Amino acid sequence: MTILFEPHRREAQHFAVLLGSDVHTATSGEDLLRLLAEYPADQSVILGPGVDLSVALAMAAECRVTRPALGIVLIRERVDVGLLGVALRSGIREVVPANDPAALLAACARSLEVSRQLGPAAGHGSRRFGSSAMDAKVITVFAAKGGCGKTTLATNIAVALAAGGAHRVGLIDLDLAFGDVAIMLQLVPERTIVDAVGQHLDETLLRSILTPYTSGVDTVLAPPGPAEAERVTRGLVADVLEFARGMFEYVVIDTPPQFTDHVLTALDLSHVHVLLTTPDIPALKNLRITLDTFDLLDLPKEQRFIVLNRSDAKVGLTATDIERVIRAPISAYVPSSRDVPVSINRGVPIMLDNPHHPVSTSIREFALGWLTTPTPPRTPVRGLRRMLKRGR
After folding, report:
1. Strand, coil or helix: what is 41?
2. For residue range 219-228, what is the model confidence (pLDDT) as tens digits?
């Protein structure tokens, strides 16, 4: 069932007719609260164009904690990138123009499908933020060559794991000098990781430097410039990751294309290493060197997953050729699409912009198929990693 909230009765009647018979209509805030209480199993709320934006955002922010499986669809007279960014960060699942009935019906169908997929898992989202019962799986996304799509993959994995708010995901930008998570998600951070420098880090302080994005996803953003990045120590990164493990169910780390102290720390504290490459010889060469380096660092092979981005590019290399070059199996294939840079320019991950797109489907299947298994124990530091830490 669906709840429609629209203060103007004529508009409410118009959208109710469009949506069909399975709709409860509210024309006041009191009616809406009554229906939400009366029908706790309803999976969708549609907010009409007559609902004040501040009310819609406040409701979405509340529901992302109290009813994470509830999908909120917002109808507006005019939809632009700024509105999309604000709405998605508050937890609204879809935003559609008022004059496009087909888009509204499609958005409602997508939202209901997400809610159905959450099913009993939605109970995870009701755990209080910061609960000590959480012990996050830490996932580091790494590529030794820039331009492979690492930040795009990391942000979309975070959105996929959050599943519309069913799980709490922390997305941490460890590309401290040139991080792109903020600009890719069109976030304007009030605080970043550098605001924790020189302070005693605890859960309260870590919460204060989080920038929320969408339902279930909060971010720790990189400093605004390289000079400030130099103030972030390896010890602070380790503390941030350790506290984040108690606050989220998954922690996804975006990294620079170098083995910096911060990256080594993240790799050591991670349960899973997602290694990204593209089907070109320089990227494959760098991946092969990365795998050799991981062996020297004693990072377990069973914790590595290789993702081939732009996998359908016609460049004369087959999957068999690539696996022979890197001497390792490929876990996921992500196709190329011009829709990916379009979604980046809009500041909305393709996983949210178009959940059924082939790129979204491939990343979701990888995330849910490979990254949601029970958390393996972390391997203690040894070998070259210990020597590197001592030398540094």
Report:
1. coil
2. 999 998 888 9
- Give the DSSP letter of residue 98: T
194 and 73, same domain (yes or no)? no
**Domain residue limits at 312:** 137-391
Say if residue 162 is in the same domain as residue 76: no
Question: In this structure, are residues 71 and 164 in contact, taking their beta carbons and an 8 Å threshold?
Answer: yes
In this structure, what token pair is assigned to residue 203? 């859960």
pLDDT in tens, 116-146: 765 544 433 333 333 444 689 999 999 999 9
Judged by phi (left if over 0) then psi (alpha if -120 to 50, else beta), residue 50 lies in alpha
Cα–Cα distance, 134 to 211 (Å, whole number) = 20
Does any domain span residue 84?
yes
| 131: in domain | no
From the CA atom positions of the chain, what is the Rg in Å?
Answer: 22
Return the beta strands (E) in the chain as ranges. Answer: 2-5, 23-26, 44-47, 71-76, 94-97, 137-142, 169-173, 211-212, 217-220, 250-254, 272-277, 304-309, 332-334
Do residue 210 and residue 289 come from a single domain?
yes
Among candidate residues 66, 93, 126, the one where a domain is terminated:
126
CATH code of residue 364: 3.40.50.300
Helix (H, G, I), strand (E, B) or coil at 213: coil
| Number of structural domains found in the chain | 2
Q: Could you say which of 126, 145, 162 is where a domain stops?
A: 126
Residues 6+ positions from 285 with CB-CB distance below 8 Å: none
Residue (of 89, 374, 131) closest to 244 by Cα position: 131
Half-sphere exposure of 266 (CA within 13 A, CB side): 29
Residue 33 contacts by C-beta under 8 Å, 6 or more apart in sequence? none
Q: Is pLDDT of 379 > 70?
A: no
Which residues make Cβ contacts (< 8 Å) with residue 239, sequence separation at least 6? Answer: 201
* Distance separating alpha carbons of residues 171 and 174, to the nearest angstrom: 10
Residues 9 and 41 in one domain: yes
Q: What is the pLDDT of residues 274-319, one digit of tens each?
A: 999 999 999 999 999 999 999 988 899 999 999 999 999 888 888 8
Average pLDDT over residues 73-80: 92
User: Does 202 share its domain with 321?
Assistant: yes
Q: 71 phi and psi, to 5 degrees?
A: -90, 130
**Would the pLDDT of 5 be above 90?**
yes
